[in-house]
Amino acid sequence: MxxxxxxxxxxxxxxxxxxxxxxxxxxxxxxxxQRSIPTELINRMGEQGLFAIPVPEEYGGQGGTFLLAxxxxxxxxxxxxxVATAVFTLLNNAWPYILYLYGNEEVKQEVLPLVGKGRGxxxxxxxxxxxxxxVAGESTVAVKEGLIYxxxxxxxxxxxxxxxxxxxxxxxxxxxxxxxxxxxxxxGLTGFAFIGNRKGERPPNFEYSILHTIGRHAISTGTxxxxxxxxxxxxxxxxxxxxxxxxxxGFSLARVLVSAAxxxxxxxxLEAAIDYARQRRLFGGRPIAxxxxxxxxxxxxxxxxxxxxxxVYKAAQIADKIYIKKETxxxxxxxxxxASAAKIEAVEIAFKAAExxxxxxxxxxxxxxxxxxxxxxxVLSYLVGAEGTQNIMRYIVARELIGRDYxxx
Length: 409
Ligand SMILES: Cc1cc2nc3c(=O)[nH]c(=O)nc-3n(C[C@H](O)[C@H](O)[C@H](O)COP(=O)(O)OP(=O)(O)OC[C@H]3O[C@@H](n4cnc5c(N)ncnc54)[C@H](O)[C@@H]3O)c2cc1C
Prior knowledge:
Elements: H1 7-23, H2 28-34, H3 39-47, H4 66-79, H5 84-102, H6 105-116, E1 120-125, E2 141-145, E3 148-159, H7 161-167, E4 170-178, E5 189-198, E6 206-210, E7 221-232, E8 236-237, H8 243-279, E9 281-282, E10 286-287, H9 292-324, H10 336-361, H11 372-384, H12 390-402
The structure holds flavin-adenine dinucleotide.
């Protein structure tokens, strides 16, 4: 059993860290305040090879692994602990891979090279106003008319809407719609590569809007409204009525990277707490770190963070065994337990680390000047939802452990 990263992985992480400490760390606060990731930064991150990392080079990806993607996302979140840039990066690694696995050749060549270069975005559009956890109950419909599907429905709390629609050359999502009657449940859902913007050109009968979120402001969260919006048949991702299964694969891969983002954000909060605990002096000039009430919560976060990081790397390695090394005897479904367990731990330690940083700062934490609130609100997005709630993660872990016949959603 080897708990170490390989030399190449360490070098990759260090080079990403160096790039981001110059390009991202100095501006994450202004990005959060101004509610935007500059297009030029997205382009530069693409040039640096931070998107479509596991996608093969012949499709414009980096020909890397999910572990490398996780290391990149961890570093992005460490350098933007409000996690906005990390969300953009993780989505732009997981969902392009799903398009690579199941998309039509022509569509892959249209979308993936632009994603890889930092000039395109490909995320996930699953959640509907009626609720995100019950994917099988979704009501957006796709009606086939010749070689076209007409899609009607609303997707909400969707990440990357402004970036896709207004900033980049191309923006789209893996969008799930119903192609069989509701009685078919999860067996009646189909996945589409819905491209909302190609060089400023938008599909007809389609509108979008941006929501007023409370944190991780630099990446937008929005709503997509389709009203008979036409999509050509070639944009089908996988076979008709297989969309639920493909979505579940994508969610597991994305959860590995969500977990990596939370690890990076937690590391930032931990270091912020340590720095402040050393500097702040009270009771006759003693650093507050000398009080166990301050140092013990920091120690607890540090210990739990190490454990969570190992779990996240393990989940990424399992993704690599399944998808990159294609080890025999493993199926996509084998990732579900690890991805969900990693998300439970990583999100909870990130929120705990943010809380400990806030408490260590005391009243200063409650000012905009301290900026730790931006980290707290960013990681909060993953405590309340985004790529599946913590309860849904527990459901998956329980189902995998105890069995589908016993554990029902
Ligand atoms: C900032 C942000 C960005 C997001 N980006 C995207 C995106 O890009 N694409 C996308 O498709 N979605 C996105 N989402 C939506 C996200 O995936 C949903 O929040 C998530 O799927 C949960 O859906 P919901 O919020 O509608 O909660 P609901 O499904 O309404 O659930 C409400 C509560 O009930 C609990 N619950 C529901 N069912 C069960 C059950 N069976 N057992 C136990 N508890 C249960 C949930 O855990 C939750 O606590 C985003 C969300 C946020 C906050």
